Amino acid sequence: MNPVNINLITATGDSAPFIGQIDVEICLGNHIYHHNVLVADISNEGIIGMDFLVTHDCDVLLSQNKLKIKGEIIQCYHYASSAKSCYRVAIQETVDVPANSEMIVSGEADGPIFRGLAGLIEPNEKFMEKNGLLVARSIVHPEMYNIPLRIINLNKEPCTLYKGTIIATCNKVDEEDIQTSEFVNSVAGGQTKVNKGRQLPDYLHEVFESCQANLDKDQSEKFRDLLIEYSSIFSKSSEDIGLTDLVEHTINTGNHPPVRQRPRRITLARMKDAEAEIQKMVKQDIIEPSTSPWNSNIVLVKKSDGSWRFCIDFRAKHIALARSKQNGKTNGRGTVFGIMDQVTQKG
């Protein structure tokens, strides 16, 4: 850097000396330009002067916010020094989000948002607590004047979001801090191994090993990755059976009065087994305490391994059920079936 005896005159009329001058490379668009610049202690990252514009045959198209330099058009953006780095984002138009659904709606910032930069969308906690909706985090480019917002409604009822409702914030982020998908676990051939480095869970080893005889090396690796990717849908143990409230079933008994069987005692030797099964099913949310007028007795059936299977005697309930028009497929050696029988293939 070379010293200079020139003073900088600021917009307020104050005078400040330049630090020096130096030849630099300036990258604009797809080209690099060499130019001698002055260095000053100012808040702006850089200011292009008339000397540069004239030297490199530049045309400034103010009406289009564009700079034309040697035939190349470069998009320009207005930048206000007072611009905030974080804005609130509101719904543009009133929308209805259906129950158990996901949708993308249009949002807008509450001020002249930063242009030409990326923004990180983050949900408004108060909005989510009040409405029971989820808002996904995402990276957007606000210069589109239309901010896409991904919303999920996990409720059983639709939810109306009115125009102007604040549901998220948009924070300015630097492009170099964003890692795009093309740089995440990229491998040759355009394939992505998202499970690289992840171990196969212990509870899936038996499933994996049981299929090895029918798979070659490449198929075995793909099968392993598949098991890892969808490991959450497999039961970790006999007690991990899952639970959903998305569907409720009803049994049509018509106008038949409730059927209540007379209580039958379980032998003292089997009482502990029955109580243990009841507590186990309560813990797994299979059953819950009830005051229903319907009542059926417990039946313990001994399995081939010596343990006991917990069953319910539904035979008295059959007379209260509407006749089913759909015949179930018979299996095994069974000859008589009840429409409420539950057949366990494996004890």
Automatic annotation (TrEMBL):
Superkingdom classification of source: Eukaryota
Parts forming coiled coils: none
SUPFAM superfamilies listed in its UniProt record: DNA/RNA polymerases (SSF56672), dUTPase-like (SSF51283)
PANTHER family: REVERSE TRANSCRIPTASE DOMAIN-CONTAINING PROTEIN, TRANSPOSON TY3-I GAG-POL POLYPROTEIN
Protein name as it appears in the record: Uncharacterized protein
Record organism: Mytilus galloprovincialis (Mediterranean mussel)
